[in-house]
Fold this protein.
Amino acid sequence: MLFRHIIGYAPSLLVPAVTAFLAVFAYTRLLSPSEYGHYALALNSMTLVNAIFFFWLQVSLPRLMPQAIRQKNDDAFRTTAYAAYAAVSAVILIIGVPIVCLYPFGEFKAVANVTIPLALARSILNLNQSFHRSRLDFNRYNIIECGQAVIGLASGLCLVWFARLESFGANVGMVLGMACMLIVDIKTMMKTSWRDFDPAILKEIVLFGAPLVAGDAIGFLISSSDRYLIGYFHGAAEVGIYAAGYAVVDRIITMLFMAIATPAFPLVVQRLEHEGIAAAQQQMRRNGLAVLFLVLPACAGLLIANKELAYVLVGPEFRESAIRMAPWVVGASALNGLATHYVCHAMHLAKRPNILFWIQIPVAALNLALNFFLIPQFGYMGAAYASFASYALLLVLNIWTGIKAFPFDFPFKEVVQISICVALMALGISFFSFPLNTLGLVEKVAMGSLIYLVSILALDVMGARSGLLAFAARARRTTKNMKNI
C-alpha cells in the first residue's frame, strides 16, 4: 500500500524538484550573487511568516482531519480552518503592511515587499493541500504542486529576463504560480458556509497546533537563521553563494524524504485511527525501511557526484562554494530529514507535539552559538558546520523522546545491509572516471544505481530477491495458464 501511495504522489515531488533545479540553474546565471541572496532571503522570510502565523493550522489538519472525516464532520472542520486562516491573514496585513511601507529596509527593501504576498499565497495553498492529503486525493494534490512550480518558474523567468526585475521578478513569479493554483479549489472555497464554523473544532486545532508554533519558529532558527547572520556579517552576495550551494544538495535529499513522508504520515494516521496502535507501529517500521532504502544511497551518490552536479546545475560564480559545502550539507540534510520526516511522527501520533518544542530549544541554542562564533571567522562554511552539528543533536533527541512517546521498531538489521550495498556502490564507482558535464553526471548516477540495485538483490535486502523471484514465478504460471487456455 505504501508503494502505491508513493507512486501516487510522485508527480507532486518530481515536477517541483525539477523546476527547483532549473531555478538554481537559471537564476545562478541570470542573477548576481547579491540578487540571488535577495531571492533566497525572500523565500526564507516567507517561511518565517508561515512558521509564526500559519504552521499551527497546517500541521494540525493531517492529524485531525481523518478523525473529522470518520465522524462525518469534515465540512465544519474545513470551514473552521478557512475562518482561522482569514483571521490570521487579516492580522498580518494590518500589522505587516505599515511596517513594510514605513520601515527603512535599505538594500533588503525588495525582500520585504514580497514577503507578505509570498506567505499568504503559500499558506492558503498549504491549507488546501492538507485537506487533499487527509483524503488521500492524489490527483488534486499533484495538479496544485506541479502547477504552482511550473507557472511560478515560467513567470519568474519572464519577469527576470524580459522585464529585468531581477530577484523581485523571481519572487513575484512564485506568487503568481501559487495564486493561479487556487483555481483548483475555488469552487470548494466558494461553497464554504460560514454557518458551519465550530468553536469546539477551532479549540481542538489550537490545542493541538499551538505548541508547535514556538517549536517550528525555533526550527526555523535552526534551519534558516544562518542566512540572516551571513547577510549581517558578510553581505547579501555571500548569502546568495551559500543559498545556491545549499539548495542543490538539500533539495534532492528533502525530495526523497518527502517522497516517503507525504504519503506515509497520512497512511500511518489512517491505520492508527482504524486498526489500532499495533498496525500503526508496523506501518512506522515500513516507512522507516522505505526512507533508508532511498536516502542512504542518495546521500552517498551526492558525495560521489559532487563535482559533476555542481558543474551541471550551478552557475560559475557559485560553483566552488557548492563543491566545498556539499559533504556538510549532505550530512545536515540527512540528519534533519530523519528527525523531521520520520522520527518526529511518533510525537504527532501520540498527540504530544509539545515535546518537539522542548527538543528544539537546546538544538537552537547550539545552532545560534555556533553560527555567531563560526560565521564571522569562516563565512558560509561556518554556517555549514553549525548546521551539521545542530541536526546531529536534533536527531539524537528525537529518537530518545520519540521512542518513549510512541514506541516503534527501528530496522537496525536492514540499515547494516543497506550500508553494505552503499559501500559496494561507492567502491565500484571509484574505479572509473567521468567528465564534468551532464553526460558524466548521468553515467555516474546510472552506474551507481545499477551497482546498488544488484547489491540489494544479492543480499536480499528487505526480501527484494525473494520478492522478485516470487513475482517471476507467478508471471510464468500466468503465462502457462494463458497458453493452456
